Amino acid sequence: MIPVKSLDWADTAPERALTLPARYFYDEEIFKAERERIFYPAWHCIGHVSELAEPGQFLTFDILDQTIVVLRGDDGQIRAFHNVCQHRGNRLLEARRGKLGSVLRCGYHSWCYGRDGGLKSAPRSERLPDFERKDYGLKGVRTEILGSFVFVNFDPDAAPLSEIGKGADAKMSAYLPDLANMTLIEEVDVVVPANWKIIMDNSIEGYHFGLSGPVHKELAALIEFNQYSLEAHDKWWTYIGPSKPDAAVAYGAPLDGATWQTDSFFNIGIWPNTTFYCFPFADLCGTFLMIPLGPEKSLLRFGYYGPKRPMPEVTKACIKWMNEKLGPEDIQLNVTQQRGLRSFGYNQGRYLIDPERSNESEHLVHHFHKLVHQAVHARG
Length: 380
Ligand code: FES
Ligand SMILES: [Fe+2]
Fold this sequence. Notes:
Elements: H1 28-39, E1 44-48, E2 57-63, E3 66-72, E4 78-82, E5 97-99, E6 104-105, E7 112-113, E8 119-121, E9 140-146, E10 149-153, H2 161-164, H3 168-175, E11 182-192, H4 196-203, H5 214-221, E12 229-233, E13 236-242, E14 249-250, E15 253-254, E16 264-270, E17 274-278, E18 285-294, E19 297-307, H6 313-341, H7 363-376
Antiparallel strand pairs: 1-10, 2-3, 2-5, 3-4, 4-9, 6-7, 7-8, 9-10, 11-19, 12-13, 13-16, 14-15, 16-17, 17-18, 18-19
Helix pairs in contact: 4-6, 4-7
The chain binds FE2/S2 (inorganic) cluster and fe (ii) ion (FE2).
Fe (ii) ion binds next to loops.
């Protein structure tokens, strides 16, 4: 059943709008609609091109009931496939990343696929009439690259990422000059008992910076918070503030002698659930993916990528601070919000949206909810 449209929700001006009703954050039917209408047709960020630098290198990615493998062929092409054998549907690769031998072998009956996805051998298949290996290659999935990150999409009819993210690439290059030459530092997966949108909402407003926990105040102290600016561009959005020019210490480490990517706290979100960012004075690009596991459960994937040069102490301190301090402080807010939303005593509140769309305004949350609402209630 398609969820009933909440009357007039999307037609109300942001300043007057009530927040997206609570059930959007836990209802099974809405989650099913999001699966079909948001996640199956979405572009999903899999990893950085450097993780597929050599032929045979692969990345796998799981979302909902789907599993994908992206790999670099001997011809240098990056290709994506459904990560399932064409014999009886066995899942092929389990590891998140690695390098294949000369073939990708199914562990069940040993059908072997080349690095281009073609079926190379199938034991005893010579006994079959009319069996053509070419008919049983791995099933391909669309891929595109944005900002040196590899994305995939299951939907042959989805708009190209280059169209959806038009302008995002240039914005990333402007703030992250070493983007094309980064390598993975580490990836941290955290399962959060909260709806994926709760995590997104938290990340796209500055209202809570000075009002929630002490680590947020540490972050706010590193940026010119009054110049923090949050801008929507339909299917992508940015929230950026200049770093404090007179800072001497960040994340407990001295800045003296350090290098960093950008003189800003830079964040860019790509519909529906990908964020790239850089913290002030850190020499890295972070990825922040909110991968839904269920209506009230998400996998939060933190990727940290750095340029190919020695990592400054302040960058190491920043990653540790994100993993051990800011991340947990935000996740705690995600968890307590999720626990509140089922209350009989709550349905909708108000977005704190001011006319100036200031640093503390929740206009990006409203924008994001509008995209969700449109997608969930789309016809067809
Ligand atoms: S299911 Fe893969 S070889 Fe049989
Ligand atoms: Fe936060």
